[in-house]
Specification:
single chain; 564 residues; mainly alpha; Arc Repressor Mutant, subunit A; two-stranded antiparallel ribbon; 14 helices; 4% strand; DNA-binding; DNA binding
DNA sequence: AAGGGGTCCAACCGCTGGTCT
DNA sequence: TAGACCAGCGGTTGGACCCCT
């Protein structure tokens, strides 16, 4: 997660003027730290939560000595340290679900997050805001044609976006598709409109989606994968498959219903928005590839590992797994090597049966890790940054041919496979291209043949997208792989650097540089205190053997003393 | 190579609602 | 009942990174 380096360099700027980053604020005499969290702070917080459970966040600061306000602790825990967090780019299914949820709930991020297991409201919010900005700039509607926002929960932001949508529909209904009108930035009326929308949901797309009057959803863990396997990705270019709409959850006076569009050909299986073609003038850029592991600590799950889960129990919604095998370093590809999430720390985590780091070796490893990276914000600890994959070959700069469309759609599909979420944008473009190419002949939508071609192309790329997007991008969750278990999360926290990794000498430098070359620019002036806190948290063993922790490839986590 | 724009995301702030005293 | 406290939510900010020009 490249952006994890954000706010680096600010953390130590005391009184730098910015409210964020490094400033320290007094609260009742205590000095509260702001800015990026360090791994040491994370460890303290995790340990505290492990001992005392969630809640009572203000007590964290009081009892743990963590110089963070309760709110900050809660946020850190909720967004980064909490078990079972799913990091990385949103899957197409998740993106689709976000659309649907936003259509229903508006900017109720927490509510949306509740239906997206492993996702935080902050993530969703960021995603949505980015999407809003992007689509505003591109003059695209926020929602696919088959998702109509509900008026039930309109926040100001949503009001704005819905108003845009409405205006766009109005515009679309008044203009012909071939009108080469330059898309101006959508106006955002300040007076909220009070339209009544209705929502259409593809029940078969998201059986877990509570909107539709369908049977109760399957467990979330099943949900996503099943979607990947059984569900056509829902997007606008899908007339070749039947679209099953549930009944409208809000039936009163839909302000703009695709089926009521002035374009009488609009059906649920056809385009309902007709975007003027600025599209080519401002081609959509592929999102840059980013490391999608994203966990603030360097240990997101490694799908490539051969780790198997032998025991999986649920305790307070925390999955507890015990890895039984670990891919040796030598078997890892070069791209896997930096992913130290391959290393499983053989401890279990349970609120009911908390464990302590009980040996000096464990503590030493922990401290070694921190000593290497203690001055980094924990979010920067991932050693697997920045392996930019070769960019997608740009779409051939040819005329607006079907090939172009297919290329774009295919690329979109490939990108979609990476969870970049531009598929709809690209499909919109493809659609607009088709419109501009075919003019009124096809009225406002691709002919069935073309659409099927596009869709087939999409499906083709969908199937191969995992290969296409693989360089530098960690694949999504592997089916059946339970990620983000508590155990893994704890291992993430407690094993910033695996003992089996040769530690480059420069990791110890005070510059905060890590192997990925990124400069944290962040120093934790309180790191000494933090480490004392950590040390105070964990009882020390009697002996110390520092040679254990940094030998090369000779020490597997499996060989470590068990915890508990 | 440098600058600008876009994107991402962590973390802040202010506000709100619930609970407790 | 009022005030204090707390947890949570949504909006916003700001820095790093990436791509394009």
């Amino acid at each position: 997660m490249a952006a994890n380096n954000s706010t680096g360099g600010v953390a130590t700027s005391e009184g730098g003027g910015s409210n964020t980053g490094g400033a320290e604020s007094g609260l009742g005499g205590a000095t509260l730290k702001k800015g990026p969290w360090t791994a040491a702070e994370d460890a303290i917080l995790v340990e505290y939560v492990r001992k005392h459970g969630e809640g009572n966040w203000n007590a964290v600061q009081r009892n743990s000595g963590l110089a963070r306000c309760g709110k900050s602790c809660r946020l850190r825990w909720a967004n980064h340290l909490r078990p079972n967090l799913k990091k990385g780019a949103f899957t197409p299914e998740e993106e689709r679900l976000i659309l649907e949820l936003h259509a229903k709930y508006g900017n109720k991020w927490a509510r949306m997050a509740a239906q997206l297991p492993g996702r935080t409201d902050n993530e969703i919010k960021n995603y949505w805001n980015t999407r809003v900005k992007r689509r505003q700039r591109q003059g695209l509607p926020l929602y696919p044609h088959d998702i109509q926002p509900s008026s039930q929960t309109q926040s100001p932001n949503q009001t704005q976006t819905q108003t845009q949508l409405q205006l766009q529909h109005q515009y679309q209904s008044q203009s012909t598709p071939t009108t080469p009108t330059t898309p101006t930035a959508p106006t955002t009326p300040t007076t909220p409109t009070t339209p009544t929308f209705h929502f259409q949901s593809h029940a078969h797309h998201h059986p877990s989606f509570s909107l539709s009057p369908t049977p109760p959803p399957p467990p979330p863990s099943h949900h996503q994968h099943q979607h990947q396997q059984h569900q056509h990705h829902s997007f606008s270019l899908s007339p070749s498959k039947p679209q099953h709409f549930t009944t409208n959850t809000s039936t009163s006076l839909p302000l703009f219903d695709p089926t009521n569009n002035s374009n009488t050909n609009t059906t649920p299986s056809s385009f309902t928005f007709h975007r003027p073609p600025p599209i080519l003038g401002a081609p959509i850029r592929f999102k840059r590839y980013r490391e999608t592991t994203g966990f603030s600590l360097p240990l997101s799950p490694a799908p490539h590992t051969t780790t198997t889960t032998t025991t999986t129990t649920t305790n307070n919604n925390n999955m507890i797994t015990s890895p039984t095998s670990i891919t040796p370093l030598g078997q890892l590809s070069s791209t896997q090597l930096p992913d130290i999430s391959c290393f499983k720390f053989p401890l279990t985590y349970s609120h009911s049966a908390p464990q302590l780091i009980s040996t000096q070796l464990e503590l030493d490893q922990m401290m070694s890790a921190y000593s290497m990276k203690q001055e980094l914000p924990s979010s920067q600890l991932s050693p697997q940054h920045h392996h930019p994959p070769p960019p997608h070959p740009p779409p051939p700069a040819t005329t607006m041919s079907e090939i172009t469309i297919d290329t774009k759609v295919s690329a979109a599909a490939a990108n979609r496979g990476c969870g970049n979420g531009l598929l709809e944008d690209l499909l919109d473009e493809a659609h607009a291209l088709a419109i501009s190419n075919q003019g009124l002949r096809t009225q406002s939508f691709l002919g069935v043949k073309e659409e099927k071609r596009v869709f087939d192309g999409f499906k083709h790329w969908e199937g191969s997208s995992t290969i296409d997007c693989s360089p530098g991008v960690k694949p999504k969750e592997e089916p059946g792989v339970q990620i983000n278990t508590m155990q893994e999360d704890l291992s993430k926290l407690l094993n910033v650097i695996p003992s089996t990794m040769q530690i480059p000498s420069d990791w110890y430098s005070d510059s905060g540089e890590v192997s990925n070359g990124q400069s944290s620019g962040v120093t934790d002036e309180n790191i000494g205190i933090d480490m004392q806190h950590i040390a105070s948290l964990f009882p020390l063993g009697a002996t110390t053997d520092h040679s254990h922790s940094r030998t090369t490839g000779s020490c597997s986590w499996d060989n470590l003393p068990g915890i508990c």
